[in-house]
């Protein structure tokens, strides 16, 4: 199966949607039953719409769980009910600090072992797992520990180039936030990989990594500011404004470097328009 097509094939050509518990009030006195019911409600809505499920990490579960058994109980209950195999998503605290200690341990390898154990117990209900931990070695270790047929979807916006390329023992499929910014280059790179042209893949994909690492630098959870800014530069939206004023979450020097890196890899669709919009942002900041 061609590598760039794998995610599309596994989802049956249908949209996949995240099912979580984000509608729950974290300030309320929640129970594991509340969390399970929250997951069930969102999963049912997604299945009724004909979409596939990505089972998102739950802030509510992370807040109230007291042991790995609590995670296992909630996830097992949901996995027994879903109609089609799902993708699990393990989102690290660098993306959301409220998810610290997910799977019942602050030690990543202990957490990994517990997650792999859960997957092994429910193998027939799990298509794959996406991990967003920005730790390439841990991802490779987990990838090799997964039951046969369970996919690893990389969420590593620092090391995706080599994780997608893989090695003699396997590779990670891509399910990445940075693809929003580097789609033109990534599409060409994956097409080269499909043709067996590893050198062509690396020539196209490797230069995008500095841009991605810049956008996802600490505090990582502000990466959306960079994605929205690049969308603005490329004319996909008419303003650089975000909910909660998060357009100000990154500094002006950060945005300038983003502009430079995007230009260096040819990701500005209309350089003149992008430069004009960059000057507007600098003018508002009193830097032009």
Give keywords.
6-stranded parallel β-sheet, alpha/beta, 288 residues, disordered N terminus
Low-confidence stretches: 1-10
How can the largest sheet be summarized? 6 strands, parallel
Structural class category: alpha/beta
Element-by-element helix/strand order: HEHEHHEHEHEHEHHHHHH
Overall shape: globular
Sequence of strands across the biggest β-sheet: 1-2-3-4-5-6
Number of helices: 13
Question: In percent, how helical is the residue content?
Answer: 40-55%
Give a description of the structure.
The N terminus is likely disordered. The protein has a six-stranded parallel beta sheet with strand order 1-2-3-4-5-6. By secondary structure, the protein is of the alpha/beta class.
SSE topology:
Blueprint (H helix, E strand, L loop, with lengths): L5 H5 L5 E4 L12 H17 L3 E4 L3 H6 L3 H14 L4 E6 L16 H14 L4 E7 L3 H10 L5 E4 L5 H6 L7 E2 L4 H16 L3 H8 L3 H7 L7 H11 L18 H13 L6 H14 L4
Parallel strand pairs: 1-2, 2-3, 3-4, 4-5, 5-6
Helix pairs in contact: 2-4, 8-9, 10-12, 11-12, 12-13
């Amino acid at each position: 199966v061609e590598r760039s097509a794998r995610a599309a094939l596994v989802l049956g050509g249908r949209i996949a949607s995240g099912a979580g518990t984000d509608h729950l009030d974290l300030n309320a006195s929640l129970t594991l039953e509340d969390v399970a019911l929250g997951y069930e409600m969102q999963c049912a809505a997604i299945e009724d719409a004909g979409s596939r499920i990505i089972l998102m990490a739950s802030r509510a579960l992370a807040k109230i769980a007291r042991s790995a058994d609590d995670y296992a109980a909630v996830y097992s209950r949901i996995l027994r009910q879903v109609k089609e195999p799902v993708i699990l998503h393990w989102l690290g605290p660098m993306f959301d600090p409220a998810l610290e200690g997910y799977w019942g341990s602050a030690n990543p390898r202990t957490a990994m072992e517990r997650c792999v154990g859960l997957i092994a117990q429910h193998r027939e209900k799990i298509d794959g797992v996406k991990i967003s931990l920005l730790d390439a070695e841990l991802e490779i270790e987990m990838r090799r520990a997964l039951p046969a047929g369970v996919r690893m979807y990389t969420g590593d916006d620092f090391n995706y180039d080599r994780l997608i390329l893989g090695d003699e023992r396997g590779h990670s499929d891509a399910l990445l936030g940075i693809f929003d910014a580097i789609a033109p280059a990534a599409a060409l790179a994956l097409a080269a990989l499909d043709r067996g042209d590893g050198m062509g893949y690396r020539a196209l994909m490797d230069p995008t990594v500095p841009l991605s690492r810049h956008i996802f630098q600490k505090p990582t959870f502000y990466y959306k500011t960079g994605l929205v800014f690049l969308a603005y530069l490329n004319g996909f939206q008419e303003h650089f404004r975000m909910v909660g004023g998060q357009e100000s979450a990154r500094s002006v020097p950060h945005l300038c470097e983003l502009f430079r890196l995007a230009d260096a890899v040819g990701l500005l669709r209309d350089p003149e328009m992008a430069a004009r919009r960059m000057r507007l942002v600098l003018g508002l900041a009193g830097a032009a």
